[in-house]
């Protein structure tokens, strides 16, 4: 529960998207300390593996200049399936690292300090400064904002610090309770949510793979 934990969480959540494989039999996997991980946990394992190898992967000054080749090595797979969307992940890291260096003295801790214990202020700061967290779209001339990973980032910090220290937010209850994509999947399955037919066709045809 220290500043290093904050920077670890920010790094992981900046990379936390799209672990889908086209086949259930072939997935991106990372073996670490005798266990095999897939999905989000494979990312965590890869980051921890890199740290144990002495690579300063959680340092914004390091990943601001990271190349795709370097990230490919750090996130190398222990199966025949590599981490998807590697270039997009590199783009996210480069932007995040540069913003932290230029605006927040090289640490996400300073983003938290600027928000005075407000989850909503931190949410606004994150989506305003880090474009990879700004999941917005226009729908019928209105801006629709989901802010999935931005809210997960705040929730992860709150959970890790057990609501204390850097994780103390007076308005944590204002953060969406279920920001993750699993919720609309479940609601669709049970018939509580309907997708438009064009969107459903794209999903069924795997045209949105990686989103």
Automatic annotation (TrEMBL):
Signal peptide span: none
EC number: 3.2.2.-
Presence of keyword Transmembrane: no
Keywords: Hydrolase
A Gene Ontology molecular function term of the record: hydrolase activity
Gene Ontology process terms (BP): tRNA modification
Reactions the enzyme catalyzes: queuosine 5'-phosphate + H2O = queuine + D-ribose 5-phosphate
Role according to the record: Catalyzes the hydrolysis of queuosine 5'-phosphate, releasing the nucleobase queuine (q). Is required for salvage of queuine from exogenous queuosine (Q) that is imported and then converted to queuosine 5'-phosphate intracellularly.
Family named by the database record: Belongs to the QNG1 protein family.
Name assigned to this protein: Queuosine 5'-phosphate N-glycosylase/hydrolase
